[in-house]
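Figure 6 in text form: structure in, sequence out.
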């Protein structure tokens, strides 16, 4: 049963989402792409205590919001020939080819993705075809990565899935040992996908982003901070 309650307050001109749930400690986070501020607090903490906590972190919040504001933003894709699209960290030129067969994607390993679509296929359907192609490639990669990392980390992933997420590269349901990965990771280098997967699997050992979590990440994937920075610098779609 979901026992959380959500409300909105304003602190020094910043809109803050406050989520009250049965937890022990207050958790403050700033989310991409627009620097949305969210505070998870124990159920009985009042708004005034939340305001004091947010006020004490205003410089930290502004710094993170500025980081998101400074990130390059990718212009909307029109799904037409000549556009740049990414797959596993490499840039490809899109070539749209209308034909009478089934919709599909073919890849020139050097530089080109060809989108084969029926005549009259609109922009949204073209994007759907490309996203499904991304999804199938991720589905082929993730099982081997999970198999590789389970004995290293010492956890078992009961289920996993891929979905589009606006503010996270991944998430996990600790109770059910289920991991979710952002479809956008198909566009990033393989080590970024692996980092996010390891990150979520480590959450099965430690729920919070505390010192213990960071120590475990250092143990299992020493270069994780550079991968995290690489994702944070990536253009927003």
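Output sequence:
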């Amino acid at each position: 049963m979901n026992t959380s309650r959500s409300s909105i307050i304003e602190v020094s001109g910043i809109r803050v989402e406050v989520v009250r749930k049965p937890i022990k400690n207050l958790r403050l986070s700033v989310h991409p792409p627009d620097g949305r501020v969210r505070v998870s607090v124990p159920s009985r903490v009042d708004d005034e205590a939340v305001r004091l906590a947010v006020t004490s972190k205003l410089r930290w919040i502004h710094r993170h919001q500025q980081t998101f504001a400074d990130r390059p933003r990718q212009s909307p894709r029109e799904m037409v020939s000549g556009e740049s699209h990414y797959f596993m960290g490499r840039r490809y030129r899109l070539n749209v080819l209308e034909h009478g067969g089934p919709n599909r994607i073919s890849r020139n390993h050097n530089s080109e993705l060809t989108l084969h679509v029926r005549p009259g296929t609109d922009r949204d359907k073209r994007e759907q075809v490309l996203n499904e192609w991304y999804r199938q490639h991720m589905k082929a990669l993730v099982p081997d990565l999970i198999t590789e990392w389970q004995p290293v980390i010492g956890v078992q992933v009961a289920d996993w899935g891929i979905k589009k997420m606006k503010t996270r590269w991944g998430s996990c349901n600790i109770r059910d040992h289920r991991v979710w990965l952002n479809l956008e990771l198909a566009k990033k280098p393989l080590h970024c996908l692996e980092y996010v997967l390891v990150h979520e699997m480590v959450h099965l050992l430690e729920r919070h982003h505390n010192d213990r979590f960071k120590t475990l990440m250092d143990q299992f994937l020493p270069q994780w901070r550079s991968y995290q920075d690489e994702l944070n610098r990536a253009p927003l779609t």
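Caption detail: The first strand starts at residue 5 and ends at 11.
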